[in-house]
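Researcher: Next entry in the queue.
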Amino acid sequence: MRFLIVALFAITTTAAAQQQGPVGALKPLYQRTRELYLKSAEQMPEEHYPFKPTPDVRTFGEILGHIANENFLFCAAALGEKDPNSTDFEKAVSKAELVKALNAAFSYCDRAYALPDAKAMEQTALFDQKGSRLWALVFNLTHDGEHYGNLVTYFRIKGMVPPSSRGQ
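Model: Structure for this entry, 168 residues:
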């Protein structure tokens, strides 16, 4: 019986993913990434935003600013728009500024992760490369995942449990 339930769940989940298309399949990953970044920004005390484990890497705050900058850039490519961001958020210094920047960047990206699948297959350019708008979204998610790994390390060095390890 347990096998039957698991098999039915797998079939239903696979069918749902196929029905929702490629952009819809990315959306839960994007929402999870969005949640982890916003929780990270809120959880880290402001006095640790200037922290960096070695001189040659970004501070915690600079990583958040970088993610805000790059989310605008990647999602603008996915939407086929000019990057609307004119601020270098890596230079922001306060927690409030960075939380606001992240919220703005993710709000902008919400539109990109709601693209119709046909639109997502259209071509775009990013970093002097060409690919589909879907490619730009996947690139964004992998980039965000890479830097979330940096934040996890910073949390651990500070003796804190990162949001992804806290459970739901």
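Model: Residues 22-165 form a domain with the Four Helix Bundle (Hemerythrin (Met), subunit A) fold (CATH 1.20.120.450).
Researcher: Noted, moving on.
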